[in-house]
Amino acid sequence: MATSRRGRRFAKSTPAKKDISTDSIKPAASSGRKIYSMPALYDLAFGYRSYDEEVEFLIGQHQSLQEDGKTPCRVLELAAGPARHCIYALQSSKVASATALDNSIEMMEYSTEIAARELDVDTFESSFHYLNKDMCNFEFGNERKFDSAWILLGSLAHLTTNEQVISCLKSVHEVLVEKGTLILELPHPRETFSLGECTRNGWTVPLEDDNGNPYGKLEIIWGDDNDEFDPITQVRQFTVAMQLKNDEEDPSKQQHDMQLQNGVKEVVPMRLFTAQEIQALAHIAGFKTKELHGALDPDGVNVNDENEAFRLVCTLCKI
Q: What band does 258 get if pLDDT is binned at 50, 70 and 90?
């Protein structure tokens, strides 16, 4: 397992982990045990992320490209999953409304429940919205426009053809205001060319009960070394696996579904992008690439930094 910036930041806990109950981790009846239909498990796996800092970066990126220096009033998060960035954006008081979009009903229901608990009543009822839509092709009409849109956690990689990507970007273009921004977070291109491993492909999340006592762990694999990669299409057959392990010494903690004890695993086709591909596809859809960064870090990470850059973050502006 590689040592990386992502690995070093893993130990930095965030409030997101505290609000996740492992009791709620159940496979959806219609999901075929697909991990993306198990939102609590997914949320727990990525609870290491510093959402507050990432939201600070996202807001700052938009603000830096506006002549008046205003922060984004209305934000849209595509392929939002648990929508943690939307929730944190509203908690920052710098965003007036946040809309999450995902094609998973399970994610929508889970995120709405989390938002109802973490946001005050007025903010939740008036400012948080979650829509079950396809990120490839959606519309809101003229009644709803956004200042900034975000596609994070490498979610654009689920769109494996140029046609899908362009359709998605054009849909975003239509719902943004003039000079609106779109911020993409993708795997670093060094991974595409196998010049180095930028992100860890496996990590472990410790599990604690309500009293803070450890009782097990969640083991995650997010991309295996043996995954098949097609250099023509740049599509990798991405292995995603998670397994809950309780302490065997305490039978009272054996509370989880036995299927999860045995683990869940699937292979997801994911496209790896280069920066110039993003620039070209964005231009077709009516965007101009303004900045490239190596992480969602408010302190700034140069995309070419061999030690610190572990993501490809593209800030696009509507033209």
A: very low
- From the list 207, 291, 312, 308, the residue with the least C-alpha distance to 4 is 308
**pLDDT tens digits, one per residue of 11-58:** 333 334 444 444 444 444 434 447 788 898 889 889 889 999 999 999
**Is 1 in contact with 40 (CB distance < 8 Å)?**
no
Q: How many CA atoms lie within 13 A of 158 on its CB side?
A: 15
CATH 3.40.50.150-classified regions of the chain: 5-192+272-318
Question: What are the two backbone dihedrals, phi and then psi, of residue 274, each rounded to the nearest 5 degrees?
Answer: -100, 165
Q: Supply 114's token pair.
A: 């989390």
Cβ neighbours of residue 96 closer than 8 Å, sequence gap 6 or more: 73, 74, 127
Decide yes or no: CATH 3.40.50.150 for domain 5-192+272-318. Answer: yes
244: helix, strand or coil? strand
Q: Two tokens at 317?
A: 């502006």
CA distance 118 to 83: 12
Asked if 134 and 104 count as a contact pair (C-beta separation under 8 A), the reply is no
Q: Could you please report the per-residue DSSP string of 101-112?
A: EES-HHHHHHHH
Helices (H), the chain: 5-10, 15-18, 39-45, 51-64, 84-91, 105-118, 121-127, 162-175, 189-192, 258-262, 275-284
| Cβ count within 10 A of residue 83 | 28
